[in-house]
Write a structure and sequence with these properties.
The complex is a heterodimer of chains A (110) and B (121). Chain A is mostly beta strands and 110 residues long. Chain A contains no helices and 11 strands. Chain A is globular. Chain A starts with a strand and ends with a strand. Chain B is 0% helix and 50% strand. Chain B has strands spanning 4-7, 10-13, 19-25, 32-38, 44-51, 57-58, 67-73, 76-81, 90-97, 111-112, 116-120. In chain B, strands 2, 4, 5, 6, 9, 10 and 11 form a 7-stranded mixed beta sheet that branches. In chain B, strands 1-3-8-7 form a 4-stranded antiparallel beta sheet, with no helix packed on it. In chain B, a hairpin with a 2-residue loop joins β7 and β8. Chain B is globular and about 40 Å long. The relative contact order of chain B is 0.33. The chains are: A mainly beta (110), B mainly beta (121). Chain A binds chain B through residues 1-2, 30-31, 33, 35, 40-43, 45, 48, 50, 88, 92, 95-103, 105, and chain B through 32, 34, 36, 41-46, 49, 59-60, 91, 93, 95, 97, 106, 108-115, 117.
């Protein structure tokens, strides 16, 4: 079963622009994580935000979490062609299962 | 950092045969491992939760007799796709979590393997 919905499903931007991806989920969570996946490859963990946190930064990444709206956003600033990948949000509920959203396919044009 | 490996990385088999995929945590003990399946251009779907020394817990709609999971040690879980058919062709990814977390890591974080691409002819 999938917990989250992400939008947009696909995003195409120019290098240097910012990319914003949104994720909504349905049930209460312990934390929410964002992952990156290059085509046909494994997952790379980007950032984890706990349910009692509202915002977190890591390099060019900024993640927000609004538990009242059950939503999160991932902002990548000053995007690069190498950021081209699929990005997934994933939620942890009780029992430590990680449930993934549908993902956003980001394409950064050089 | 934590490393989870999978073997094989790619496998092609004939319809009707069984395929075993291994998932190993290389530098930590994983009491719980998870198996996911990903079809092209889709998200990861959790198949089952594998607990060391006990039976796996399968998600709704996943046939436990078709996808056999064995978590015999704290560093190894295996997924066997029995009597594979072309519709089982997919990317299978495992993940592992350490109950106590890792030095410098976050307890809640799962560590994902690189995935195994299965093609059933």
């Amino acid at each position: 079963s999938q917990q989250g919905e992400e939008d947009p499903q696909a995003l195409s931007i120019q290098e240097g622009e910012n990319a914003t991806m949104n994720c909504s989920y349905k049930t209460s969570i312990n934390n929410l994580q964002w992952y990156r996946q290059n085509s046909g490859r494994g997952l790379v963990h980007l950032i984890l935000i706990r349910s009692n946190e509202r915002e977190k930064h890591s390099g060019r990444l900024r993640v927000t979490l609004d538990t009242s709206k059950k939503s999160s956003s991932l902002l990548i600033t000053a995007s690069r062609a190498a950021d081209t990948a699929s990005y997934f949000c994933a939620t942890n509920t009780g029992g430590f299962k990680t449930i993934f959203g549908a993902g956003t396919r980001l394409f950064v044009k050089a | 950092g934590a490393v989870v490996s999978q073997h094989p990385s790619r496998v092609i088999c004939k319809s009707g045969t069984s395929v075993k995929i291994e998932c190993r945590s290389l530098d930590f003990q994983a009491t719980t491992m998870f198996w996911y399946r990903q079809f092209p251009k889709q998200s990861l779907m959790l198949m089952a939760t594998s607990n060391e020394g006990s039976k796996a817990t399968y998600e709704q709609g996943v046939e436990k007799d078709k996808f056999l999971i064995n978590h015999a040690s704290l560093t190894l879980s295996t997924l066997t796709v029995t009597s594979a058919h072309p519709e089982d062709s997919s990317f299978y990814i495992c993940s592992a979590r350490s109950p106590s977390g890792l030095a410098g890591g976050i307890r809640e974080t799962q560590y994902f393997g690189p995935g195994t691409r299965l093609l059933v002819l």
